Amino acid sequence: MTQIYDLHCHSDYSDGILSPSELVSRAHAQSVDVLALTDHDTLAGIAEATEAAKAFGLDLIAGIEFSCQWNGRGIHIVGLNVDIDNPQLQAAVESQRQRRVQRSETIAQKLHKAGIEGSLAWVQAKAGKGTIGRPHFAQFLLERGHVKNINQAFKKYLGAGKPGDVKNVWPSIEEAVAWIVAAGGQPVLAHPDKYKLTRTKLRALCADFKECGGTGLEILSGKQNPNVTQNMLALAKEFDLRGSLGSDFHQPDQPWQELSCCGTLPAEVPPVWTCWEH
Ligand code: AMP
Ligand code: MN
Ligand code: MN
Ligand code: MN
To answer: Which atom of ligand 1 lies at the shortest distance from residue 154's CA?
Structure first.
């Protein structure tokens, strides 16, 4: 029988809402057979997710979603089936954590200059045990009434070129790929359609990603338009990248990113899991 894969999702160790155990339980209820937990720049939820997966008879793949930059743009690279005990990977995670802490201080200063006080303590409390991200600032701006919704927080304050935007935070895609490879994992270019790149620039990104050792591309990300799927499939074929898929689930009230929502990979490209399943 065909297995159901979801190889991209978030817990409350980054900007997701559910704990790793709640996430695994929900994945089981959504008939997922193989789940990769890919929190932003942290592996902290993997141990709990692995334990929960045993109880539900589900296969848990250790993953991570690294923030990086390419030609000044934010790009996400997912690492799948990594060895979480690898020292290089652990050092990388620590460097990313420090980058996030420093960035949160800078964002708070920038918001302060824009007349918005008190964000740092608020987001630190909100992030709790997890990595601090812009979604925490967005939540703060929403609760303080500075914006009407989360999307507006990014549009007005946190997105590229806005008052709270911080540049040059992240490592290159080469570095992120190297960390994942060092830990025996598969580097996968996350949600290529979300970067709003022209076809030419997206092809350039795929070429650079492949050249520095990338092996996979998310052909399916959340519920997506079939045209997008065809475009992503063509990219994977052109650059000889294996196919991956994931919901990018963050929280239960977003049906377009529900666990297992992305269906099954087109058969024309080899799936990324053939690298670790024998
Ligand atoms: P960060 O990793 O801290 O830079 O935050 C990026 C995260 O913010 C992404 O992974 C999304 O979960 C979320 N995000 C980015 N843009 C938006 C948006 N326009 N609306 C809601 N969430 C967003
Ligand atoms: Mn996120
Ligand atoms: Mn992402
Ligand atoms: Mn994600």
So the answer is: 19
What pLDDT sits at residue 205?
A: 98
Whether the model clears a pTM of 0.85, i.e. scores above it, the answer is yes
Convert 187-237 into a string of H (helix), E (strand) and C (coil): EEECCHHHHCCCHHHHHHHHHHHHHCCCCEEEEEECCCCHHHHHHHHHHHH
Centre of ligand 3 from the C-alpha of residue 116, in Å: 27
What is the CA 155 to chain-centroid distance, rounded?
20
Average pLDDT, the chain: 97
Instruction: Calculate mean pLDDT across residues 115-128.
Output: 96
Task: Output the residue whose Cα is nearest ligand 1's atom 3.
Answer: 133
How many other CB atoms sit within 10 Å of the CB of residue 264?
A: 12
Is the CB of residue 154 below 6 angstroms from any atom belonging to ligand 1? yes
pLDDT tops 80 at residue 243: yes
